[in-house]
Here is the input.
Amino acid sequence: MKKSVIFLLLINLFSCAGDNAGVQTNNLEIITLSEETYREQPLLLSDYATDIKYIRLETNDESLIKKIHKVVLFDKYCLVLDRDQEQIFIFDTLGNYSHKINRKGQGPGEYICINDFVVLDDSTICITDVCSGKFMRYSFSGTLLNETRANHRPNRIAALNGKYPVLMSIYGKRVLNDHYVLSVCDKSFKPVSKLINRKYDNLTAEDEKQLPLHDGTFLESNLDTLTVWETTYDTIYRIIDSATCIPRYYLDYTNKTPSYITNDNDIIGKYKFIFYIFETARYFFINLRDENGAANWIIYDKYTHQGKRNKGIEHNYQYLGLINDLDGGWRFWPQGVVSENSVYDYFYEYDMQEDLKRNKIIYKNALYPERQKALYEKVKKSGIMDNPVIAIIECKNEK
Here is the structure.
């Protein structure tokens, strides 16, 4: 009865309509998130993945990365966004360094900061500059093709069907384009349509000021659609084409009133707060903070409609994640989406080398012992200045 009531409420409350948008509410699935639903337990990588592979990024004076913020695999290339240096590094999928996009500045064809980027099917690279409000499109080699500036500052960008750049507002409810969250654009960044209307949220000006940025929002390709979830909201949308948006999942979690985050990342109020969601064809990987501020790392299986909660072996971020029983490597928890069936994480082999010396996080009986041996031999040769290694898992997808 409760789910029926929720479903009827959703039909009335969740409007995805844009200027010419079609709205559909069929196939809405409710995902319940609670401690009672998901018992905390150690989880093995082999329960969710069929394979893991690594891209060891070449280290030289031109390719040295401070921190990975986004990874995109396109054709035979691996593109890595480093916001600390405001550069996009381009390697091949074997990890060999090719070149980088480095156009920082305040002149034509230059950006102040890169918040997000996407590669279109024509091999052009679109970026958002949240500092200046610029949207820019470069050739794969880094030549500026076009740019524009707007009075709003979206900080997320994705590609719809590889053709349309889709821009997302920087704030959860203080949104761009007359209360619309998304702008579907052509390659010159002219809006084709607008999606997800927040006009009737009725927030006060003071509430709007306290809303967190879209740090945990995802705007990712999924199968033949684009998937959208906004921080502090409870609905996951599918964007089928430039004018059609479908509410697909409803996240039912206790006290889902928006919780505001202080500068120290403390949660104000006894609310649960979802920080990150990553999705493959079968799984949702969800980072949920409870009312005590503790992290809950949940994996939800869309086929079985059940989930499990990860247990870390130490109260330390680097030891949280799925235990890598495939090749005995570093623990894994997604940092982003590679494709409809794979996600990535990254680690530093030097850190793993240090833990091997201390006999930490080592899975003794890996399913692939020869691969484990080869991995450890490479780890032993790593240096403290070496670039991180990107780990990509292929998720299970059989029903």
